[in-house]
Design goal:
Layout: E1 23-24, H1 35-47, H2 58-77, E2 86-89, H3 92-108, E3 125-129, H4 138-147, E4 150-154, H5 167-170, E5 175-181, H6 193-203, E6 206-210, H7 222-225, E7 229-233, E8 244-248, H8 250-255, E9 266-269, E10 274-276, H9 290-306, H10 308-327, E11 332-334, E12 349-354, H11 359-368, E13 371-372, E14 374-376, H12 381-386, E15 392-396, H13 403-425
Parallel strand pairs: 1-13, 3-4, 3-5, 5-6, 6-7
Antiparallel strand pairs: 2-8, 7-8, 9-10, 11-12, 12-15, 14-15
Length: 426
């Protein structure tokens, strides 16, 4: 399955250094935007701009309607039961911190009567995995330190695959929350969610999922996943920067205390106390990124028109081409499995290391060839430490990536390898 949509993305019409063709393979960091998204944001500012949920004038009514219609669009896209289960946030990091911060508030007795599901203290346990992006690791580390809860993690093997045999031991009866990524931003491995959810439910723990690398690339239905919270990022799914979303079960969101306070979140304020609105408004303090929300809805509609099954099939072909091409290269180490035959589904993310060469040096050669990739530890130092690497070079695809892009990338990696190994041999 091949998508032919490159013409929809204006940025991809430009050239790279010295007029070379631009090959954009850094979509796991941020995606490019189709014209429909750029036009939606501009149209909002040009015709409907106003503060939402405040004014009674025509512009305020139009802006509020667009804001809430976008919420409903996103809710349908991820299979939410209702639009009120979607909370707008600054980004996915803020969404994950919203849950961790709400649990910190509950544990400290801040924000109203505490629901015991969110209260943590000594003797309780927080569980993550060894493959987490820092955004889904550090908030839970900090929550453990604030509350005295124990912090534990599920290990991965030498390919980055989760050790499901450790679930019963790590997710024990004292566990209150299990946070894990749906797709690794380093290995590209798709997590088998079912065993984690099953074990968490068995001990009464909440499940929090980082969906940044899954929602833009795979069909995702939160009801089918069976999780309690899921965070996602607009700019990784063809939408604008500055907007993310937290999905949570309505009854959990209504019970979770806010950790950011301000206007539009309240029903009543006196000099002595404050009463909160139900979700999602209780979490949306202050002025909202309305134009970005509207543009994100345009991105969702663009992906829906392509069909997420078609998106996943297109990127599966690219994943195999990238990963198998790297795995066949001498002196190049692919991080993670080559493909599904090794026991894990993977998306079109391929991180690798060239023997004896720093990832930044590899990235510089690729940049000279017009190829945009990510270098470093990709906000995932513990996983790189597991692999004995300070960092890696990462290529990642999206709907606009072509097989010709991947071929150019593989040729450039070979050039980088040969260049540095020829120099070292002198």
């Amino acid at each position: 399955m091949t998508l032919d949509v490159r013409h929809d993305f204006p940025l991809l019409e430009r050239t790279a250094r010295a007029g070379k063709p631009l090959v954009y393979l850094d979509s796991a960091a941020t995606s490019q935007k189709p014209r429909a998204v750029l036009e939606a944001e501009q149209a909002f500012y040009a015709r409907h701009n106003a503060a939402v949920s405040r004014g009674a004038h025509v512009l305020a009514e139009e802006a509020t309607a667009a804001f809430e219609e976008a919420r409903a669009t996103f809710a349908r896209f991820i299979g939410a039961s209702s639009a009120r289960e979607v909370v707008w946030t600054q980004n996915a990091t803020a969404a994950l911190n919203l849950v961790a911060g709400g649990m910190a508030s509950a544990s400290a007795g801040v924000g109203g009567p505490a629901d015991p599901r969110f209260v943590l203290g000594p003797g309780d346990r927080i569980v993550v995995t060894e493959t987490e992006h820092h955004a889904n690791l550090i908030p839970w580390q900090q929550l453990a330190q604030r509350t005295g809860a124990e912090f534990a993690w599920i290990p991965v093997d030498d390919l980055g695959r989760m050790d499901t045999h450790a679930l019963d031991e790590v997710i024990n009866a004292q566990t209150k929350v299990v946070a894990f990524t749906h797709v690794s931003n380093v290995t590209g491995i798709v997590t088998d969610v079912a065993p984690l959810v099953q074990r968490a439910r068995a001990v009464g723990a909440l499940t929090v999922v980082d969906g940044c690398q899954s929602v833009p690339h795979l069909p995702v239905n939160v009801q089918e996943l069976g999780v309690d919270f899921l965070a996602s990022s607009g700019h990784k799914m063809l939408g604008p920067t500055g907007i993310g979303a937290l999905w949570g079960r309505a009854e959990l969101l209504d019970a979770l205390p806010p950790s950011v306070f301000g206007g539009s979140t309240i029903t009543k304020v006196t000099m002595e106390k404050t009463e909160w609105l139900p979700a999602p408004q209780r979490f949306e303090a202050g002025s909202q990124p309305v134009a970005q929300v509207v543009a994100l809805a345009a991105a969702v509609e663009y992906l829906q028109n392509l069909g997420m099954e078609a998106v996943a099939a297109h990127e599966a072909d690219l994943a195999l081409q990238m990963r198998s091409g790297l795995a066949e290269m001498d002196k190049v180490r692919l991080i993670g499995p080559v493909g599904n035959s090794e026991g894990s589904d993977v998306v079109a993310i391929a991180a690798f290391a060239v023997e004896g060469v720093h990832s930044h040096d590899v990235g510089q050669v690729l940049d000279d060839d017009g190829i945009c990739v990510r270098v470093g530890h990709h906000c995932n130092q513990p996983l790189h430490a597991k692999f004995g690497l300070p960092g890696s070079t990462r290529a990642s695809a999206h709907v606009y990536t072509t097989h010709e892009d991947v071929e150019a990338f593989l040729n450039s990696v070979e050039r980088a390898r040969d260049f540095f190994h020829a120099r070292s041999a002198v």
